[in-house]
Amino acid sequence: MTKVRTAAASLVVSASVLVGLAVHEGYVGTAYRDPVGIPTIGFGETAGVQMGQTTTPVRAMIQLLDSANKHAKGMVECIKVPISQNEFDAYLDFTYNVGVGAFCRSGLVRLLNQGKYEEACAELKKWVYAGGKVLPGLVTRREKEYQTCMG
């Protein structure tokens, strides 16, 4: 099956990527420190989070959608080639996890913008470290992102 690729800016956050983000991140109603010490709450939200802060599942889901849209906007500014919805979804899940800056500076984006789609997808599998250690949860997440990316 041939992938239909369009300008990244014309793609939107899909329901499947939003559900995937919620599943990958998991919900926690009270702020905690992630594996590298960053205050986190809800479905992996880090922006402006203070320790002791609380949220509800509904507020966290609204925040997740808002954050996913912000990450998508930043991500597409770095993508200069057409991509498929599956590629968009995989890269958004990845970008939500590592941040727009890391995505835009990555070798993944360099390969993608050279039209090396399969090689770019494969780069996802390299991003399994946090705090200098391989995290099994990231290995699983990156494999799912890779499979999504490959369609």
How would you describe the overall organization of this protein?
By secondary structure, the protein is mostly helical. The protein has a single domain, classed as Lysozyme. Helices cover 53% and strands 9% of the residues. The protein has seven helices and four strands, in the order αββαααααββα. The strands form two sheets. The chain has a two-stranded antiparallel ribbon with strand order 1-2. A hairpin with a 5-residue loop joins β1 and β2. The longest helix is centred in the middle third of the chain and has 20 residues. The model has no long low-confidence stretch (mean pLDDT 95).
What's the topology here?
Layout: H1 15-25, E1 28-33, E2 39-42, H2 57-76, H3 85-98, H4 100-105, H5 107-113, H6 117-123, E3 129-130, E4 133-134, H7 136-150
Antiparallel strand pairs: 1-2, 3-4
Order of helices and strands: HEEHHHHHEEH
Q: Which spans have pLDDT < 50 for at least 5 consecutive residues?
A: none
Distance between the termini: 9 Å
Work out the count of structural domains: 1
List the strand order in the largest sheet: 1-2
What gross morphology would you assign? globular
By DSSP, the count of extended strands is 4
Count of helical segments? 7
Helix content: 40-55%
The Rg value, from CA coordinates, equals 15 Å
Q: What profile does the largest beta sheet have?
A: 2 strands, antiparallel
What structural class do helix, strand and pairing data support?
mainly alpha
CATH topology: Lysozyme
* Architecture (CATH level 2) name: Orthogonal Bundle
**Average predicted confidence as pLDDT:** 95
Q: Which CATH class? A: Mainly Alpha
Strand content: 5-15%
Quaternary structure of the protein: single chain
